[in-house]
Amino acid sequence: MAPPNLLTIGQLAQRTGLSVSAIRFYEQRGLVRAARSAGNQRRFARADIRRLSFALIAQRLGLTLTEVERALSTLPEGRAPTRKDWQAMSRRIRETLEGRIRTLERTRDLLDGCIGCGCLSLGSCALYNPGDRAARAGAGPRFLLGDRPADFAPPTAPPRRRLRP
């Protein structure tokens, strides 16, 4: 049995809900570090429960493994992170999460209408994206990517000058 402050890989798997193979994968990627017992068995700090739980939820929220690795790399090594450490890391990823939330909200709000993809299959596309003007900004669903229909309005004609009789 592992000392009370250290967990076996099985105990860590049971507590986090991750498989043993997933924990090994995260260990290979450097998200957690195992100490070795006298019998060369892996032993993990209790603080690794939080690191792995963060990795699990962050990936479910859409962060890439690289983003998770980058965030966790800012935590101290050799000691359990404090509340202050976690708050500092949280502030660094907050902008990424808020950007994803804005994208999700925009998708929710625009998905049933013209999204600027160029298909021109909806009647509203003739109003918001006539002739697929949004294609000028590049490929993809331009309005979901942040462009606005007003960005692609036809150029206004200059006012006509009246000729003197």
Q: Could you explain the architecture of this structure?
A:
The protein is elongated. The model has no long low-confidence stretch (mean pLDDT 87). The termini are far apart. The protein has helices spanning 9-16, 20-28, 47-60, 65-72, 83-110, 125-128, and strands at residues 6-7, 35-36, 42-45. The chain is built from six helices and three strands. The relative contact order is 0.08. The chain folds into two domains: 6-98, Multidrug-efflux Transporter Regulator, Chain: A, Domain 2; 111-154, no CATH class. Strands 1-3-2 form a three-stranded antiparallel β-sheet. Strand 2 (35-36) and strand 3 (42-45) form a beta hairpin. It is mainly alpha-helical.
- According to DSSP, the number of beta strands is 3
> Which architecture name of the largest domain does CATH use?
Orthogonal Bundle
The CATH topology annotation of the largest domain reads as: Multidrug-efflux Transporter Regulator, Chain: A, Domain 2
Molecular shape: elongated
Descriptive labels:
165 residues, 43% helix, mainly alpha, 6 helices, Multidrug-efflux Transporter Regulator, Chain: A, Domain 2, 2 domains, 3-stranded antiparallel sheet, elongated
SSE blueprint:
Elements (H helix, E strand, L loop, with lengths): L5 E2 L1 H8 L3 H9 L6 E2 L5 E4 L1 H14 L4 H8 L10 H28 L14 H4 L37
Antiparallel strand pairs: 1-3, 2-3
